[in-house]
Write a structure and sequence with these properties.
By secondary structure, the chain is an alpha+beta fold. It contains 13 helices and 7 strands. A 5-stranded antiparallel β-sheet has the order 1-2-3-4-5, with no helix packed on it. Helix 4 runs antiparallel to helix 9, helix 6 crosses helix 8 and helix 7 packs antiparallel against helix 8. The radius of gyration is 36 Å and the shape is flat.
Amino acid sequence: MIKKLDKLILKAFAGPFLLTFAVVQFILLTQTLLKYLDDIIGKDLGLPVIGKLLFYLSVLIVPTSLPLAVLLSSLMTYGSMGEHHELTAIKASGIALTRILRPVLVVSVGLLMASFWFNKTIVPKANLKAYSLLWDVRQQKLALDIREGVFYGGIPGYTIKVDHKTGPNKDRLHGVMIYDHTQRTGNATVMLADSGRMFTRFNGAYLGLELFHGHNYVEQPDAQNRAGASFIRQGFDHNVVTFSLASFDLNRTKEELFQTNRMMLTIPQLRAGTDSLQHSLDLARQQMPRQLDAYYTYLRFDTLGAAANRRVAHWQVPVRRMPKLTAPMAEQAANRARNLRESFKVTANKLDDLARNSAQYRVEIYNKYAQSVAVLLMFLIGAPLGSIIKKGGLGVPILVSILFFIVYYVLTITGTKYAKEFVLPVGLGVWMANLVLLPVGLFLLFQAYNDSGLLEVDFWRRLPRRLGFPGLRRLTKPKGEE
């Protein structure tokens, strides 16, 4: 019977989990694409490049999708079982709620381990692939788009203007003007044509313009007489001009150039980077007093007029032996104070940069653990809450899941920001969302285990009396109770 019960629960959980995971992946992928939409649209990247980019970005959001999918699917599974009185029948047979939750709990632990492995092994590689490709896409020029009445300078060395475009494919041109800047002589070379035809050659590698009834104008300055220049005009009835479109190709940058970014590193590499930054920070702190010692001196003039430097820390000269303050001494002291202030600024900025970089490396390490543990945390919230709500389907579970996920997401973003800004310790900031929601999950599990009517009116009426607020007892008494 127990094995049949496990199969029943796992079968009820598998369908909603796969469905919700796919939906969450689609929603988060759409949100991610909206951030980079301006970098992708209008560049004629082709389906292979766009497909690779979508695949890499979808891999990156898997650790974020898993907690939400587990929360929603577990809430739907146990809510549907409660709605159809299956939970009541199982409990009536003497099986505790914790035993009913165990199959999905085992699956959640497995998903936690899979998420951690995925986060530490696959995500760094996907980051390298995705962001290196995205960098190249951002550097890619917009696709060839010659508009009417607008000077187009997308082709290196040329500026093209067309008055009108006709034809089914807008390849018939009227009023063509081409400035040739390849010789870097300004607008000295111009080609005008009454009409023409635009086409591509050699599988799109070159753009061809077949021009009709036009003239070439070339201005040649005189090297001896700057004011004088010769002017050449040449007419044609038919002319073909070819432009290379190599600048529109997607040039891939070597991925090795991006490997040092912390998002592309594994946990051992992040720890090595953290240790290196921490060592540099400790070394800079140790060198700081020695660098500042030179500024903490004073000048003592003896009878011969020779100057000697002494440290302020060992200043044992009586006041009666101190030299009189002169204008040069005051100016020298002011200069030393200004130099000391600038040295403090430079050193403080260096220490701050090292500390921030070290914190960001540690944030990446803690994130890989915190995102994985969030899978189990969302199960602890979703499964008991579903057994309390006793509602399946896509209505109430989606609303409740979105509410909890928004809280989790906001706490995660806030905690990470506080960790990077040194408002909270790095570990506490990254784990803040899990630490805040863990008591909520345990509370819901306790209420579900004791069959508490958490959503019933009587529960909230009796809650102040249970908590020991005598002033509220009279207000919370149900009618007819003495």
